[in-house]
Write a structure and sequence with these properties.
There is one protein chain. The longest helix has 34 residues. This protein is mainly alpha-helical. 79% of the residues lie in helices and 0% in strands. Helix 10 crosses helix 12. The radius of gyration is 25 Å and the shape is globular. The protein has 15 helices and no strands.
């Protein structure tokens, strides 16, 4: 037996096996190191996010989660009877922060860019996130789903005007006309589900400006710098939690701690919180992959799909006027999407056709990669 193992050919086989095992171990270590570097490097994490979650994937992800959380929050606020919308939003962000803390402890949370945004910008983003999400849930408590969705129509012109003032970002006439058709169609589609409540209407009006600023900041920070959605959420969530705590005494009724925290009620609230984390993440991905206006148009598409789905699946009869309005809005959204795709293809085709080096092209044509204002909606 000993003579067999000391033979020359056997020693070669064992040595080759040891070498193969060493190579496999080295390959696994390199793979582990590369994955670690992808998440720890802001540039690598940003490229990974763009590769795995393009515009179509991000918008679809956000659409599915947004539809689910509207009905889930309505269930929590109406059926479960949890009449504390700001505290519900606070629970959402606490769960989101805990989930991101787990990712960070596992070294999966993407790192922040080395040249981070100014503290004032992150502080402003956290503040408007608290107002936007909190006031949205308050509006959903007092208003019908139709009125809640219709109030989003005013967000579109607010974003267009704010981006023009802040970034000199212009919108073509064809897109303005298309957005007008979309807004008109949504208004007609939701007119039969408008339950007016004075306080709810005031909250809906107060929600418009923070919502527009929130979407603009999320989109610009991700497109101008190497911020990923999760890294930006991790930085701004503590600020959002602070302002939500300040809003609770003003907008929530007393008695949150004396609520009937049964297993079923707590499970529904936790499910809403998990959907809230997914909504925030998917919304950030969509804003980073597209634009603020496109994200609002997706919200209008969601409204029309909910209305038509209730009509075809559950025999709900909103009326012929609402159905025609929904189809009109969907047609306008389709044209808007076509205009966006044509604009993107016209931008990328000259770059693909050119054979000049990138540095030479940037000198001749100008480097517009970081110029947010040079792009159009």
């Amino acid at each position: 037996m000993l003579n067999f193992f000391v033979r020359k050919d056997v020693r070669k086989i064992l040595k080759r096996k040891d070498s193969d095992a060493g190579e496999r171990g080295k390959a696994l270590e390199d793979l582990r190191s590369s994955l670690f570097n992808v998440f720890r490097s802001p540039e690598g994490a940003k490229r990974q996010q763009q590769q795995l979650c393009g515009p179509a994937t991000a918008l679809t992800f956000n659409f599915v989660v947004a539809v689910g959380i509207i009905f889930m929050n309505k269930l929590v606020l109406k059926v479960v009877g949890f009449q504390f919308p700001i505290f519900l939003t606070f629970i959402h962000y606490v769960v989101s922060w805990l989930l991101m803390a787990i990712l960070k402890s596992l070294s999966i949370l993407p790192a922040s860019p080395s040249k981070s945004a100014r503290i004032s910008t992150l502080f402003t983003l956290g503040f408007v996130m608290a107002l936007s999400t909190g006031l949205a849930n308050v509006s959903l408590k007092y208003n019908s789903v139709g009125f809640y969705q219709m109030s989003k129509i005013a967000v579109t012109p607010s974003i267009v005007l704010a981006e023009f003032v802040l970034y000199n970002k212009r919108v073509s006439f064809s897109k303005v006309l298309t957005l007008a058709v979309v807004s008109f169609g949504v208004a007609v589609a939701t007119v039969t589900d408008l339950q007016f409540h004075l306080f709810g209407a005031c909250i809906a009006l107060a929600w418009i400006i923070p919502s527009a600023i929130n979407k603009i900041l999320w989109s610009s920070l991700q497109q101008q710098e190497n911020w990923t959605a999760l890294a930006l959420m991790w930085k701004t969530t503590p600020v959002t939690l602070f302002f939500l705590v300040a809003l609770i005494p003003w907008l929530d009724p007393p008695g949150a701690l004396s609520f009937n925290w049964s297993f079923n009620n707590t499970s529904a609230i936790l499910m809403s919180a998990i959907l809230g984390f997914l909504l925030q993440w998917s919304g950030a991905l969509a804003l980073g992959a597209t634009s603020a206006v496109t994200h609002v148009v997706l919200g209008q598409f969601k409204t029309c799909v909910i209305l038509l789905g209730n009509y075809y699946l559950f025999s709900s009869n909103p009326g012929k006027t609402s159905i025609c309005g929904a189809f009109t809005a969907i047609a306008g959204m389709s044209i808007y999407t076509y205009l966006n795709l044509r604009q993107q293809s016209s931008r990328t085709s000259p770059r693909q056709a050119s054979t000049l080096p990138k540095s030479k092209l940037s000198k001749e044509n100008g480097n517009h990669d970081g110029n947010y204002g040079a792009e159009s909606v």
